[in-house]
Amino acid sequence: MTHHPVIRRNSGYCHCCRNEVIFESTHDWLRDYYKCSVCGSIPRQRHLQYILDKYFQGWDGLAIHESSPSADFIRRYSGDNYSSSQYFPEVPLGSYHQNIRCENLEILTFPENHFDIFITQDVFEHLFSPATAAREIMRVLKPGGVHVFTAPKHGFLKFSRCRATLRDGNVVHLEEAQYHGNPIGDGRSLVTWDYGSDFEFLLQEWCGFPTVTYVTRDPSIGIDGEYLEVFVTRKI
Question: Are strands 100-102 and 82-86 parallel, antiparallel or unpaired?
Answer without folding.
Answer: parallel
